Queue: 2 jobs
Job 1
Amino acid sequence: MIPSEKSRVYARVIESKRLTDDIVRLVFEAPELARTAQPGHFVAIRAGQTEAPLLRRPFSIATSDGQRCLTVIFRIIGAGTTLLAARQPGESLDVIGPLGHPFEIHEDRPAILVAGGLGIPPIGFLARGLKERGILAMLYYGVRTKAELATLGDTADTVRQLVVSTDDGSAGHHGLISEVVAREIHSDCRLYACGPRPLLDVLIRLARERNIPTQLSFEQQMACGVGACMGCSIATARGYQRVCTDGPVFPADVFFD
C-alpha cells in the first residue's frame, strides 16, 4: 500500500449538520485533498481558529467527490469536537491530508463490509468505491440505537444488502453486530471493517479461524498524525506499528500469533 502525498490546506466549510444530538456531518471544499483521497484515508483538522486546542483531531474521510469536496462525520466528545461542530459555512478549516494507508480493493471474492458505531465513514466510502467498480458488497452495521443509523446517509443504496444491529434493540438485531457476522460469514469472501477495538478483535479471530482475507481500519487517538510522536502505536505480531502511518488500515494477519 502506497500512502498518498499529503497536503496542508485551508478548506472552506460548505455544510455543518447535526445527524443526531451528538453526531455531526461536516462538508468542506478542499480540491487538493478530494482529488487524491481514497477509502481508508483520514485527515487531521485543527479544531479551533487559534492555537488552542493545540493538537489536531483525526477523522476518517466519509466521502470525496473526487474533484472538490470531502465529508467527515464525528461525535462530539470534548472541547475540540465541540469547537469543530460550531464551525459555520464559509469559515476556513486548517486541514492536513489525505493521511495514512487506504484499503486495497480486490475483486476476486465477494466483499463483506463491517462497521461499528462511527466506523461507518471509511466503510461507506469504500462501499461507494466498490460500486464504481461494479461490486455490490454486503454491509453489516452496528450502532447504539436506531437514531444513529442517520450516519448511513445514502450508503444503503451502494450495497446489495444491509444488516443492522442496535445495542438497545430499537432496530435490527438486538445485540452486537459481531454476533451476526460470526454467525453468517464464510471463508469465500473478503472482509473490510472499521470500528471499536472489541469488534476488530472478534474479526481478527474469525479471519484466522476461517482463513478470510481481512483488512481492518483502526480508530486511535493521535497527537501528530504523521508518524513523528509514536503516540498511536499498537501492538501487532510484528512489533509495534503506528496507526497514523503504518495504518490506519492493516491486514488482519499482522495480528496473528
Job 2
Amino acid sequence: MSDAAARKYGLQYFRGLPHDGLSREWGVLHQGCNSGYQALNLAVLLGAKRIMLLGFDMRIVDERRHFFGDHPKGMNVQSNYAQWITKFKTIPPDLTGVEVFNCTKGSALKCFPYKPLKKLL
C-alpha cells in the first residue's frame, strides 16, 4: 500500500521503518520483521494499556508454520522465528504503562509473561 492509495480510499497510512523497539510517532510503525510486531506497535499507538497476544507460537506446530499452513508456492515467504523473537525482545523497555501478556500456550516467545486468556478476561 502507498500513501497515494490511502488518500484515494480514505485510509490511514502508516509508514514502516526497520527500527527496533516501538515507534511513538503517529503514522510510523517499527517493523520487527513480522506483522505481529507491527500490530503490537499499532495497539500501543492507539492507546492500548493491556495487550493479549494470541497465536504467537513463534515455532512450527503440527508441521505448520502458520495456523493456515504454509504460504502458497511461489510466495517464498520464510518464517525466521529466531529473528522475530530477537526483535520482540527490543519491545519491553518501551512499554511503560502498557501490560503485554502472551496468551499462546507453548509459545517460544518468552519476553512477555504467559497468562491464559481466560484469566485475563
